[in-house]
Design goal:
Length: 426
């Protein structure tokens, strides 16, 4: 075949999607129990939104965006993450000015132009949430707990939450000045990215993936933001950790953690499993809503990667449970019975059964094989005799028992059997 899928994308085939659906069910359930409501924003936005909302010193904006010009000459970008779009929607739809805080969650595809490798693709899926309108540390703890619980309820083990504070408008500028005094004289020794970060957002140098840069930061004894937090930020961090402890979330301080996005204030965290890449991460952003044209409104959120959660599940040998079984396979033993087959399948489906039939005019033998292959619970045979007497031969595929039922009573009798079996716990 000469046309293949683009690099960094995947076909999610039915056989692999069992774990995906299981994961998505858990995520949705946890969000909804905590009173979050779903939001769906466009898959593409004006490029400017991400430049301003994610930050122009981030990897995402510097090198990973899928940007293109549409036919009207506008620059659009496939969304690389969810927060910017959700914040834009929050502002554009004037959801501020309500008495209650706004708790939103999302799930869907994201796009980043990355070098494809394990755990890193160009189209991937994120689940996450954003909450607007409260600054209290209890809320940080709730969101941290959600980011942890979705993964633990899914069945993953060995999870740790690494937490840090990245400061605020008070302590960040002082830290920045202190940092620059130390790193600027050694500017050329850092990588090109870090030299740029130095000018625009030196804190992000701590997130550099080059070992030399990290070693230089240590050698030059550059203070970490967590070492120089203002009193309010320190108090906030302690309160967050107090509440996550109440919730039983295994949190560890990581003074080196500075997450990828430019707009975080105070709390930042990541959920990790030793030896694996980060599954999810989040942070508080108290200035982003205003940055995108809304009134000053505090926000907090996290995002996790579905592919990474599912891969961890595979590594930890979790299974999705059995695929749902086909209830009834209708066998057309005589081509004149095709009308009856059509209406029987429809009646069964409307009665709540998963039912199917042959569409290839195959022999009875091949149809029976299909019923077997699909683990049908029952096989309903429509042949010449059945047609003449207005009946259906119904075979229970587990017990092998076979009975003749009136055509019009098939759905009803199957329901009775099912209720009885459920009562017996089968
Ligand atoms: P990394 O440091 O691994 O590049 P990041 O900081 O870019 O991560 P975030 O922007 O915080 O990641 O995204 C949140 C989560 O989304 C990640 O923890 C990961 O699970 C998932 N994710 C991010 N980029 C990709 C990708 N290219 N492919 C698959 N999953 C991804
Ligand atoms: Mg990245």
């Amino acid at each position: 075949m000469d046309i293949q899928r683009p690099r960094g994308t995947a076909d999610l085939l039915p056989e692999a999607l069992g774990l995906w659906s299981a994961f998505e069910r858990v995520a949705l359930r946890e969000f909804e129990r905590a009173n979050y409501r779903e939001i769906r924003t466009p898959l593409f936005e004006h490029t400017e939104l991400f430049v301003r909302g994610v930050g122009d010193t981030t990897d995402i904006v510097e090198k990973e965006m899928y940007s293109f010009q549409d036919r009207g000459g506008r620059s659009l970008t496939l969304r690389p993450e969810g927060t910017a779009g959700v914040v834009r929607a929050y502002v554009e739809n004037k959801r501020y000015g309500r008495a209650d805080i706004d708790k939103l969650y999302y799930l869907g595809p994201m796009f980043r132009y990355e070098r494809p490798q394990s755990g890193r693709s160009r189209q991937f899926h994120q689940y996450g949430c954003e909450v607007f309108g409260a600054e209290a540390p209890e809320l940080d703890a709730e969101v941290i707990a959600l980011s942890y619980r979705i993964l633990s309820e899914f069945g993953l083990t060995g999870l740790t939450v690494e937490v840090n504070s990245v400061g605020c408008d008070v302590c960040r500028p002082q830290h920045k000045a202190a940092m620059l005094r130390l790193v600027q004289p050694h500017a050329e020794e850092f990588c090109g990215d870090c030299q740029r970060r130095m000018e625009r957002n030196p804190l992000r140098m701590f997130d550099c993936k080059h070992e030399t840069c990290q070693r230089l930061l240590t050698e030059l004894q550059v203070p970490r933001i967590s070492d120089v937090l203002c009193a309010d930020c320190r108090e906030h961090l302690e309160a967050v950790l107090h509440h996550t402890a109440l919730l039983g979330i295994p949190c560890e301080r990581n003074p080196n953690l500075v997450r990828g996005l430019d707009y975080y204030t105070r709390t930042a965290w990541e959920v990790t499993v030793a030896g694996h890449s980060t599954v999810s991460g989040g942070g508080r952003y108290n200035s982003l809503v205003a940055e995108l044209g809304g009134p000053e409104t505090p926000g907090i959120g996290f995002a996790g990667g579905v592919e990474r959660a599912v891969q961890l599940a595979i590594d930890q040998s979790l299974t999705a449970g059995e695929d749902e079984r086909l209830d009834v396979y209708v066998v057309t033993a005589d081509q004149t019975a095709t009308d009856q087959a059509t209406s029987l399948v429809d009646t069964l489906r409307r009665a709540g059964f998963m039912a199917d039939r042959d569409f290839q005019r195959r022999s009875v033998k091949s149809q029976v094989k299909s019923a077997d292959r699909q683990h049908a619970r029952w096989m309903a045979v429509l042949g010449e005799t059945e047609l003449a007497s207005g009946t259906v031969t119904v075979k229970d595929m587990d017990s092998g028992e076979q009975e003749i039922w009136p055509f019009l009573e098939v759905a009803e009798r199957m329901q009775e059997r099912r209720t009885k079996q459920e009562g017996e716990g089968k």
